């Protein structure tokens, strides 16, 4: 990450996931990176969106190590124990909608509120992993109601926060980032292993794309190859 200062500090939230772990490994291998902290549901401190109490403890630990130059939020869910992407309106269930929105939208939104003030004011990058299927303009196939809507709402949170951040942290860049299809537990039931890329390759591409972004790019929806996506 040549655009960040030597000895830059990086934070990965969701470091237990396929993409999050790949990000953390690549940043650890970057000699210019001074510190990589990868947090997840079982780390110390923990980041678990199902337990609102632990976000405050994580925030306290992050505050003591600020400023952060690179923050990647790599959490998210598409399916789970009682959650399956819906093909039809008739399949919508309140409990599943709540779970997906808590994980993909509410948790990352609260986390942004805690982490954004800790960004370096001169030069910093904050990327929240979203998904192209969360694009309203690009939705041609339908289906996957909860996942699509939770990512569209996440995109609005990112866009809105970028406007607020511009005033306090003019050197910060906040984007919604689409990783492309990547082999992971999240994509596996949807042919992810067949059509997805290796997480290490995806993380390398995304770091390269992020490195090229400047403050004017803040508030964008960016794909892994640097292309802009429609909201
Ligand atoms: N893979 C793809 O093809 C693809 C495509 C487009 C977008 N994305 C996005 O990329 C991101 C990473 O996905 P991935 O493929 O790496 O999936 P993954 O391997 O399943 O990783 C998901 C991560 O989110 C964490 N997580 C899930 N629920 C959580 C909760 N309630 N609180 C805190 N953390 C929670 C998981 O923690 P645990 O390890 O504890 O479960 C894990 O660290 C997601 O936002 C996803 O929507 C992925």
In short:
The chain has 231 residues and is an alpha/beta fold. It has helices at residues 18-28, 53-64, 94-115, 145-168, 192-195, 199-211, and strands at residues 8-13, 33-39, 70-73, 124-129, 172-178, 221-223.
H/E element order? EHEHEHEHEHHE
* Percent of residues in β-strands: 5-15%
Evaluate the radius of gyration: 17 Å
**How far from one another are the termini?**
27 Å
Number of helices: 6
CATH class equals Alpha Beta
DSSP helix fraction: 25-40%
Total domain modules: 1
Q: How do the strands of the widest beta sheet line up side by side?
A: 2-1-3-4-5-6
Q: What is the CATH superfamily? A: NAD(P)-binding Rossmann-like Domain
Bound molecules: NADP nicotinamide-adenine-dinucleotide phosphate
- The CATH topology is Rossmann fold
Low-pLDDT residue intervals, each spanning 5 or more residues: none
Average the pLDDT over all residues and give the rounded result. 97
Count the E strands: 6
